[in-house]
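Now for one record:
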Amino acid sequence: MTSKAPVEETFISHLIELRDRLVKSSIGIALVTAFLMFWPGPSHIYDFIARPMIAALPAGSKMIATGVISPFLVPMKVTLVIAFILALPWVLYQLWAFIAPGLYTHEKRLVAPLVISSSVLFMAGVAFCYFFVFGRVFKFINEFSPSSIAVTPDIENYLDFVMSMCLAFGATFEVPVVVVILVRMGLVSVDKLKEVRRYVIVGAFVVAAIVTPPDVVSQLSLALPMCLLFELGLLVAPVFVRVTQAPEELS
C-alpha cells in the first residue's frame, strides 16, 4: 500500500497540472475571443475574410445568406477560429510547460524549437493561403464561369471553403517539422529522403490535387511550397540533429 501511494499522488498531481494548463489555454483563447468581439468585431472580421472573394466579383456584388441566423452565426464562428489561431502560441506554450519538467536538457532543446516553428509555420501557411492564393483562385474561377451565371456565394459555404483551404495550407507548411522529427527519431536518414525526392514531389502534387479545388492555380500554389519546404527540412534536419544530441550520443 505504501509503495503505491507515491505513484498515485504523482499521477493525481499530473492530472491537476494538466487541468491547470487546459484552463490557462482556455482562458487565453477566451481573452483573445473577447478582444476580437469588441475590436474589430465579428462583422468586420468576416468582411476581412471575404475581401478576396468580393474583390474578384463584379463591382457592387455581395454574398448571400440563405439561413435565417447565418448572418449572426457565421461571423461568430470565424471569430472563434481566428481567436484560436492567434492564441495558438499560448496554447502550445502551455503544452510545452506541461511536458518540460519530464524532459532531459537535450530533449528540451528538441521540443522548444519544434513548438515555436510549428506555430510559426502554421500561421505562415494560413497567411500564404489568404494573401497569395485566394485572390488568384477566386479570380480564375470567376473568369472561367459563364456570363449567364450570377456568382453570389453563400456566406456559410464560403467560410467552410476558406477554413478548409487555410487548414490544408497550414498543415502542409509543417513539412519541415515532419522531416526534422523523422530524421531526429532515426526513422529515416537525410540521404534516404534525398533518394525518394522524386516520389515526394509526385506525392505533393497528389495531395494538392486532393485538398484543393480542381484548378491549376490552387494546386500549384500548394504543391510547389510543399516541395520547397521539403528541401528546407532536408537542410535544417542535420543541424537540428547535431544540436539536440544527448551527451552519450556525442561520446
Notes: DSSP finds eleven helices and no strands in the chain. The CA atoms of residues 180 and 237 lie 5 Å apart. The chain has a mean pLDDT of 84. The two ends are 42 Å apart (CA to CA).
